[in-house]
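hey so i finally got around to running the thing on that chain from the lab meeting. sorry it took forever, my laptop kept dying and i had to restart like 3 times. anyway pasting the input first so we r on the same page abt which one it is
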Amino acid sequence: MKIGDVIARNRKKGTLIIILVTGLFLTVIAVNGIKYEFEEESFLPKNEVVEANERVIKEYTNEYLVPILVKSKDGNILRKDNLLEILDMEKRLYENFSVMPFSVADIISSAFLYIQNETNMSYENKIEAMQQISNKNITQMLNFPFFPKESFSLLLSNDFDGKKAEATVIKFGLNGSLIKDKKAALENESKVEKTVQQNYTHVETDVLGARIISEKIMKANSKSISLLLPISFILVIMVLFFIYRNIKEVILSLLALGIAILWMTGFGALLGYTFNPMITSIPVLLVGLGIDYGIHIKKRINEDGIRKGLNSISTALFLSAFTTSIAFLSNISSSISTLKEFGILASFGIFSCLFVMLIFMAAPARKEKGKDKIILNKLAIIAKEKKKTILIAALLTTIAISYFATTIEAEFDMMDFLPEKLEITGEINYLLKNFEAAEGEEAIIMIKGNVADPEMLKKIHSIEENIKDDAYVVKAKDSILSVLSLMEDYAEKTFYDMRYNESFALLYKNYFENGLPKENVTEENIIQLYNLLYEIAPYDVKKVLHRNEGYDECIIRIATDTGKKENNISVLYSELKKDLNGNQGIITGRIISSYIILREFRSSQIKSLLITILLSFLILEIVFLKIKKSILIGILSLIPVILSAIWIIGTMAILGIPLTITTITVASLAVGLGIDYSIHMSHRFMQENDLVKSVTSTGSALLGSALTTIAAFGLLSFSFLPPLRIFGVAIAIAIFYSFILCVFILPVLLEMWKSSPFFK
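ok and heres what got predicted. didnt touch it at all, straight out
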């Protein structure tokens, strides 16, 4: 029995199943709830380098940094009135958190107290000292020969000229355990924000904590989707009225879409997925894709009746849904968890749309008229007359755009998700632009093993010596921080030395000489040194040394200057690998991690595209061999969608759209979505064996499908989040290319195939 007969006889049972499944997923949502979060970890690939960098962030620190940006209203943060208000903020923070912040106001006031031989560095004393001095005294202090101007400038905006600066950053560190407790981190950051945002006369402040930023991104995303989803439905209603000209069919289509979106959401809740900005874009995507099935079903039923129409269209529908799902499921090959979840939920949503549409839209046939068929008929006649011209134009276009496709760049920056209209976005961009020196670049080498072994320390020393002459390593005395350099800092006394410790120095000189362990020094001796260092400098030592049951791991922090250019980072990464000289170590750090993520983006794009093309080709061959016993028709059906993938990558490069966490899926989706059009056109051509008839009949349904899909994805271009905007634009262009290629290029290829000896 054919599918059309089954659906026609069992519409009531199908409707009952839909009601039961809908109730089930509503229950799941009510019990499990929907988790909305924006976590950088979910966008990161499962990779040794990236995971090592995450471990460094979480385990090699005693504090959870909450940057506080302070801008002067009069243009100079180093004026007395500004500094007094900063000290007032710090005093409030200390009273609320029992943690002392660090700022330029701290340094200046402490310096004046030191000159007065005052040892009490309480905030009351600092404020009193600041009140007694003038702006001229502050300028003189900044130019004092022994004043630490270089480290002082790291806390100031890039316009610092030795006398004035527009802004500063207060470094405020909470307990490092907050890194692993997101809820507590947000509560503490919100408390910090409330503490410092007083009605100050001379300064304005912004707390730029990670959890506050994530929370504001998710709120902006929720607001964006809550606006875009209803608008997408309105646009679809307009298109459906244009296509159906029947209010009942419009309502059934929208109801089917709503149910499919609810099923997808319930399925995500059942699997425990977190709905981040990328996942929450799926409903808009399903509006564009799901409505296609309703249009094709209704168009064919109106032409051939329920049973015959469903029987003739069912193969093409299931084939197109399957290949589209492959495009999404190809993301399972990615090591990025968000892409995997995106692919699984989108695929489930597509089959949900198909099932519900088949039940809801299998209504009695009616006659329809439309100018779209007249226009398509004229274009089809032109295509039939100008076959060679059209193919040559398509070939030349592909050759030209292929060049640009090879030049596309990759980018990874979670800050790209910041909505442009949010006030905090402007402040974050200001911080990144004006405090580059404070942000800096850093590569890290993680070394596992017994770090208390003297032989291991000699290997670490050898690695450090190899690093010093690398091209993009900063050439400065303190550019490399490790357990070796840290011990040396605490053992060697220099002028204005903040680290020297006499007790540690005596013990260190017993066991070390010229930065290396002396002969006959034992593991116990090294452990003794480490234990003492942990007592006197727990904050500093935890930056480079890991202690579990023993000292089982350490890191080497390397200041770098690649300009964040991919080629330079590649050279740095290669040189650091050589510096290990056969020793075991993981090269990581934010700069290296970002580079590896970019490589993963390219790899992920290629893998998902190849998987989509190969599986789609196999399915097409199996189906068309069974229907027409022809290998060539499967190949011909795949050509337009491969061209659409090349065209969209080239277009992205021309428009300056890089490969990002969202756009790496565009090429495979261009194939997966476009192949629907290809299947419907090839399937219709095999029934009609005529270019003009195929384009006129199926082209009308494909036009409606393309318009709704472009409308839905095009709406994402109005999203508050830039990555979703770019994603929407890129997919909309890809759908347009797929429509043009499948409706006008594919029939030309099929017409030429029909007249060849291969046609039977």
